[in-house]
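Sample intake sheet
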Amino acid sequence: MFGVFRKSDATAQVGWLAVAALVAAAGLVLTGSKGSATLFNGLFVTDGFAVFTKLATLGASALTLILSLSWLAQEQVKKFEYAILIIFATLGMLMMISANNLMSLYLGLELQGLAAYVLAAFKRDTLKSTESGLKYFILGSVASGLLLYGMSLVYGFTGTTSFDKLAEVLSHHPSTGVMVGLVFMLSGMAFKVSAAPFHMWTPDVYEGAPTPVTAFFAIAPKVAAIALFIRLLAGPFADLVGAWQQVVWLISILSMAIGAFGAINQTNIKRLLAYSSIGHMGYVLVGLTVASPEGVRGALVYLALYVFMNVGAFAVVLSMRQKGRAVESISDLSGLSRTSPGLAAALTIFMFSMAGIPPLAGFFSKLYVFMAAVKAGMFGLAIIGVLTSVVSAFYYIRVIKIMYFDEPVDSFDRPATANTVILWGTSAVTLLFWLWPAALINSAQTAAQVLFPG
C-alpha cells in the first residue's frame, strides 16, 4: 500500500521495509521456538526443525534482498513490486517448511513458485529475462503437475492427506500405488531443488534472470525445498525408506556428477554457479539418503553454511560492473587481484570453501554428510562424493587462477556499501567457522532429533 500511494519512486523504501519484515519474522520464529505445535486443524506444524530451516530461509531472503536493492538503484529499475514478490515467495517457503498436510505443502510450493516465475522475467524489456521466466514457468508447471499427480495417487490409495495419518496408514498397509505416487512426488520435488536429472532448467534460468534474482533462486528456495524434502520423507514416508532411499541415492549421485562435470567448460560465472548449486544439492541429499539423525544433521549444517558461501559469491558477482555496465564472463575477472585485491581475496575464500578445502566452512559441511554416509555403511556414496568434490575443485581453482595469474582487464566500479558489508561478513563466517562450530552443529543436531525422536 505504501508503494502504491507514494507518488514518487518507493523502490528503496519498500525494499528496506521488506527487509525489516523478514528480520521481524525471524525474531518471531525464534521467540516462539519452545516445543512443537500443530495449527489450522493439523495443516501447519511448528517445531525445532522448522525453526532452524526457517531462520536459514529468512536470513537468505533478507541478505539477497539487500543485495538486490543496490542493483535496482544501479540499473534504475523503479519497481517497488520486486520486494513484495520476495516477501510472497518467502511466505510460500515458510509454509512449505511447516507443511503437515499434502494440501498445505502444495499451497506453499505454488505460492513460492508463482512469485518466482514473475521474478525470473522481472526485466521484461530484455530478451534473456523474458526467456528465463517463460522457461521457468513451463518447466515449473510440468514439475507441479508431476507432484500433484503423485499426491493424488497417495491420497487415492490411503484416503488421507494428513502427514500424521499417512504415517499411521503406511506403517501397516503400504501399497504399490503409494510407491508410484511417491516416485512422482520425488520427481516434482527434485525439480524444485534443481537436482539431476530434473536440473535442465537451472543454467538457462540462472543466466537469463537478473543477477539478484539468480542469487535469490540459488539460495533461499533451495533451503526451503530441501527442508520440505526431509520432512516429507522422514515423516509420513519414513516406513517406506527402503523404496525412496534408492531413488534419492541415484538423484544424489547424478547431481554430484553433473554439477562437477557440467561446470568445467562454462564461461559465464552465473552458469558456473548454477552447476555448482546442482552439485551442492547432491551433497545435501547424501545426508537425506542416509535416513538417520546424523545424516539430517549433516544436511542442515550444509544448508546453513551454503547460505553464507553463496550469498558471498553472488555479492562478488553483483560487484562485477565496468563503467556502469554489469559483466558476467569469467574472463572479466582476469587480474582482479591487482585491480581489486579485496574482492579477489573474498572470492578466493568462497571458491576454496565451495571446493571443500580445509579449514574453510565448506570443508566441514561436506565432512558431516560424508561422515554420516560412512557411519551408515554407504561407502560408495561417500567415495563418489569425494571424487566429484575433487573434479569440482578444478573449476573453482580455475577462477582463482584467472584472478591471480592472468593479465588485468578493465577494473571494476566501486561496489555498493551494502554489498561490501555483506561480502566481508559472509567471508568472515566462511573463513572462521572452524573456531566455533559447536553452536551451529548443536542446533542442527537438536533440529534433526525432532524428526528422529528415538
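Comment: Residues 127-158 form the longest helix (32 residues). The chain has a mean pLDDT of 89.
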